[in-house]
UniProtKB/TrEMBL annotation:
The lineage of its organism: Bacteria, Bacillati, Actinomycetota, Actinomycetes, Propionibacteriales. Residues 66-288 form the Ion transport domain. The chain crosses the membrane at residues 67-91, 103-122, 137-158, 187-209, 254-278. This is Ion transporter. Keywords: Coiled coil, Membrane, Transmembrane, Transmembrane helix. Residues 326-339 have a biased composition (Basic and acidic residues). It comes from the Bacteria. Residues 1-43, 315-339 are annotated as: Disordered. It comes from Tessaracoccus rhinocerotis. It is a multi-pass membrane protein. InterPro entries: Ion_trans_dom, VGCC_Ca_Na, Volt_channel_dom_sf. GO terms for cellular component: voltage-gated sodium channel complex. One of its GO terms (molecular function) is voltage-gated sodium channel activity.
């Protein structure tokens, strides 16, 4: 006797709809499916956990592993040592060995970029969203340009720039560079303010000391250029007492002129520059903490997805269990002689 799943009393169909049996009440509705629960959890953003069974997931785990990063750092340091050794007068055999080592290093860096790109499914745009990754990719890619390979100076420069990849392995160094980048716009504005102040002060100095310099004395304010150079020396506090001593022989107002500029230029403007850099570094560290929190949230969401998959599999197995049990009982009843 052929038994059809949807025609058995009390058994659910393949789509989960209850079959209408004779003499039995319809089966109660099932609990909410894990699929509906899954909708309440946001999908992990790009860069989150990758399924362990995918090839890009395997590449991502390799690229993020500690042993892989340590190996790349070791290769970069070893490459820097070979570059330093090649600057000396060495034997021809050793120089040939250094050239062969350079080929090996380049091959390792290319393999590293392939693995890291594979983690992003070879999506160059997604990979280059991080400026450091874009810089590292460019350093490796330019080695294959004919313009670089045919020019010894450019090739050496590119090899030296590989050492800067160590910055990407130091989290604090990356935060410092990010802080300096954030401090750029306000620092430029402050630099323009300092330039304008030096120009105005140099014009005042030219009017006070320009045509009254004694013979044999350096002309500190013979023109605007010399005046701004003198004021720059005052900003660095290099030899300011000698400049003040020489200018006092011209007019006593030199004391007021120099001291006011030192107070305004050195103790106010320079401290403002330091404050801008400190605030920018603080913002950079806060951004890094936010990125870490976001990464932890993505991992938590990925774990929730895995948990929902397990709940779904368990719910489906429990739903199919009674069907199989009822089917076996019906087969046993039909196989009895008195049936």
């Amino acid at each position: 006797m052929v038994l059809v799943r949807g025609q058995l009393p009390g058994l659910r169909g393949k789509q989960g709809a209850p079959a209408r049996g004779r003499g039995r009440a319809p089966a109660p509705d099932r609990a909410p499916s894990p699929h509906s629960l899954r909708r309440t959890v946001a999908e992990p953003a790009e860069g989150g956990a990758v399924p362990r069974t995918t090839w890009h997931g395997l590449a991502g785990r390799i690229a993020e592993s500690n042993w892989f990063r340590g190996f790349i750092i070791f290769v970069i340091v070893l490459n820097a040592i070979t570059i330093g050794v090649s600057t000396y007068d060495v034997a021809p055999d050793l120089r040939a060995t250094l050239r062969a080592a350079e080929v090996v290093f380049l091959s390792i860096f290319v393999a590293e970029m392939v693995i890291r790109l594979a983690a992003y499914r070879f999506n160059v745009f997604a990979f280059c969203r991080d400026p450091f990754r874009c810089f590292e990719l460019a350093i490796v890619a330019v080695c294959f340009l004919p313009v670089v390979t045919s020019n010894v100076t450019l090739l050496r420069l590119v090899r030296i720039l590989r050492i800067t990849r160590l910055i990407g392995t130091m989290p604090d160094a990356r935060v410092l560079i990010d802080g300096m980048r954030r401090a750029g716009p306000p620092a430029l504005s402050l630099g323009a303010l300092i330039t304008m102040m030096c120009f105005l002060w140099a014009a005042i100095g030219w009017m006070l000391f320009g045509h009254r310099t004694p013979a044999g004395m350096r002309g500190y304010f013979d023109n605007i250029g010399e005046g701004m150079l003198t004021l720059f020396e005052l900003l660095t506090l290099e030899g300011w007492n000698q400049i003040l001593h020489d200018l006092r022989t011209i007019t006593p107002w030199a004391i007021v002129y120099v001291i006011v500029f030192l107070l305004v230029g050195t103790y106010v403007v320079v401290n403002l520059m330091v404050g801008i850099i400190v605030n920018s570094l603080d913002d950079a560290y806060k951004r890094r903490d936010m990125e870490r929190d976001e990464a932890d949230l993505r991992r938590t969401v990925a774990e929730l997805h895995q948990l929902l998959d397990r709940i779904e599999a368990k719910a489906e197995s429990e739903a199919e269990g009674p069907d199989v049990l009822g089917l076996r009982r019906l087969e046993e009843d039909q196989s009895r002689p008195d049936s």
